[in-house]
Amino acid sequence: MKETVIAAVIQSLEKELERQARANAQSNAASAFSAAHAEKQRDTTGFEAAHLARGYAGQALELQHRMDELKAMPVEDFTGQEIDVGAMVEVDFDGESDTYLLLNCGGGTEVKVDGCTVTVITPESPLGSRLMNNFEAGFVELPTGLEGIILAVY
Question: How many contiguous H segments (helices) and E segments (strands) does the chain have?
Answer without folding.
Answer: 3, 6
